[in-house]
Amino acid sequence: MSAAGTARRSSRPRKQVDYDEEKLCADAGVLGAAAVDYQQYSQLLLQADSDNSACLTATAGEVTAEALLASGFKQPVLLQPVGDSAAATAAALGMRLPPDFSLQLLAEQLGPQHRVPVIDVTSQEALPHMSLGQWVSYMTSADRASQPLLNVLSLSLANTQLEQQVSAPELVYQLDLATQAWPQQQQQQQGSTSAAAALAPPPCKRPRSVLLYTLCSPGGCYTDWHVDFGGSAVWYHMLQGVKVFLVAPPSRHNLACFEAWAGGSGQARRWLGSSLHGCAKVLLAAGSTMLLPPGWPHAVVTLQDSVAVGGNFLTTCHLGQHLVVWRLEQRLRVKPSCQYPGFRLLMWQCARYMAARLQATAAAAAAAAAAAADSSSSSSSSSSSSRSSSSSRERQQVKAAAWSSSSRAS
After folding, report:
1. Do 243 and 378 fall within a single domain?
2. Does residue 394 fall inside a structural domain?
3. Distance in angstroms (rounded) separating the CA atoms of residues 324 and 343
4. Are residues 215 and 349 in the same domain?
């Protein structure tokens, strides 16, 4: 989802930025790095062939976490809004969402000095952080067209007061490995002498959450091909504007092409989409929600000024895919700060979580088998008793008949 959360390695030079400078080199971005022909790439994305069958479309509330897990969550899911009501759509998704969510609300709630991570679209590089006040001024500026094209893709709402007002769809929390597998009572294990506590890992700080971000993109923005960190799945809910995604399944061929492109020196001069197979376009308009499965390379064009909320999550049914992308990141030497936070630790927690689930399942199966055996034994005993009673009645009837016959004979 975010440029900070991609498996794309960069060795481009950086420099300090004057956000008020007006003159930029024609062949370089704000940082002086190689320029991406984002306008041409945007057109290539919009004109690309698309496999429309690759995306599942439904209405918000019609898709459940259980259904996604049962199907393996192998294709993108586009959830259309419920009528024209943003509140009804949020309710159907199980989301918390202020009715007036906007850039202005962000500034009011987070404060004008809140740091905002910014991307220079021309170079596709991260810039030094701007303040939220500067970003609002940029987005509302009358002469924005004469300024560098900037993009905000990963403004985290974690540990802010908005975290209590905004949430991911309920099914995302049900799928999210960090939510499901991270010990909820870990702090209570300190000082315990029980055998279970002795086997548990020492308490440790939970890694930063990547489940809730705000994205704010001016019309015309282009985000080049990337795979989200750790091969994580992504959810997006559009509040305003329109974005078009071109997504590709994480086949062996596609990931090999991505790795060769991301590890090369000519990223800016090459459109990766022409090498990928099975691409699909997804148009995300206001009120729509998309769930992108783990490991899918994707590029994005913003057609109109857009505001969205979204985030990243790992799932139990894609552990193999997460590890494939994690190894790819190691080969590309992606900086730890740009990888999924606490990935290795979460994998260990996942192992404990899965082991506990297997033990619980085995115990439940054993209990059910024992109950079935008891029921069968009881049924067999009852049947034997019934047969014995029946035989006794038959003997009595035979004796009575014989006595009656003897009496008549006498």
Report:
1. no
2. no
3. 13
4. no
Contact by Cβ (8 Å): 115, 129: yes
Q: How far is 31 from 124, CA to CA, in rounded Å?
A: 10
Residue 190 lies in a domain: no
CA distances from 364 to 46, 64, 183, 186, 379 (A): 53, 25, 22, 25, 22
- Taking Cα atoms as reference points, which of 102, 86, 151, 160 lies closest to residue 123? 151
Q: Which residues contact 140 (CB under 8 A, 6 or more apart)?
A: none
Summarize pLDDT for 291-345 with one digit per residue, the tens: 999 999 999 999 999 999 999 999 999 999 999 999 999 999 999 989 999 999 9
User: What is the total count of domains within the chain?
Assistant: 2
Boundaries of domain holding 288 = 3-183+204-341
CB-based contact 291:77 (threshold 8 Å):
yes
Is residue 266 located within the same domain as residue 374?
no
Q: Are residues 327 and 356 in the same domain?
A: no
**Distance between first and last Cα of the chain:** 106
Which tens digits make up the pLDDT trace of 57-75? Answer: 999 999 999 999 999 999 9
What's the CATH code of the domain at 177? 2.60.120.650
- What is the pTM assigned to this prediction? 0.79
- Sheet bearing 77-80, strands edge to edge: 56-59, 77-80, 289-292, 233-240, 306-313, 213-217, 150-156, 115-120, 125-131
Q: Which of 28, 229, 33 is nearest to 126 (CA)?
A: 33
Whether residues 315 and 377 share a domain: the answer is no
